[in-house]
Amino acid sequence: MYDVAMSPQVSLHNSQTFLKCSRFQNMSQNSSESKRKINQAAEARFGGNVDVICSRGHFSYVFSSNLYCEAAKDLVTCIAFRQTPAS
């Protein structure tokens, strides 16, 4: 389980491939637009479902995943992750 309270400049990831393939460079100052673009790019690259959450400013979350990426651009912060199946 990963629990983080984000500041806008934090950038964490567990996979260089996921970071590159989730296309965080598609982020804009619009959180809804960023979310859609990141989701489309990540799902096209990895197949399956990739969850994406974007928000303007600070937010906190808890999730379980072995594949995730987090980035911020200006005031928009996004996290993309693939849910870990229940064992």
Using brief descriptors, characterize the structure shown:
Protein Inhibitor Of Neuronal Nitric Oxide Synthase, 87 residues, alpha+beta, disordered N terminus
Give a topology summary.
Elements: E1 2-5, H1 16-21, H2 31-46, E2 51-56, E3 60-63, E4 67-73, E5 76-82
Q: How many domains would you count in the coordinates?
A: 1
Q: N-to-C terminal Cα separation, in Å?
A: 14 Å
Q: How much helical structure, as a percent, in the residues?
A: 25-40%
In CATH, the topology is named Protein Inhibitor Of Neuronal Nitric Oxide Synthase
User: Under the CATH scheme, which class?
Assistant: Alpha Beta
- Secondary structural class: alpha+beta
Number of helices: 2
Largest sheet: 3 strands, antiparallel
- Beta-strand content: 25-35%
Oligomer: single chain
* Poorly predicted residue ranges: 1-12
CATH superfamily: Protein Inhibitor Of Neuronal Nitric Oxide Synthase
Record field, number of beta strands: 5
Short structural description:
InterPro entries: Ground-like_dom. By secondary structure, the chain is of the alpha+beta class. It has helices spanning 16-21, 31-46; strands at residues 2-5, 51-56, 60-63, 67-73, 76-82.
Structural overview:
The chain is of the alpha+beta class and 87 residues long. It has a single domain, classed as Protein Inhibitor Of Neuronal Nitric Oxide Synthase. Helices cover 25% and strands 32% of the residues. The protein has two helices and five strands; from the N terminus they run βααββββ. It has a three-stranded antiparallel beta sheet, with helices on one face. A two-stranded antiparallel ribbon has the order 1-3.
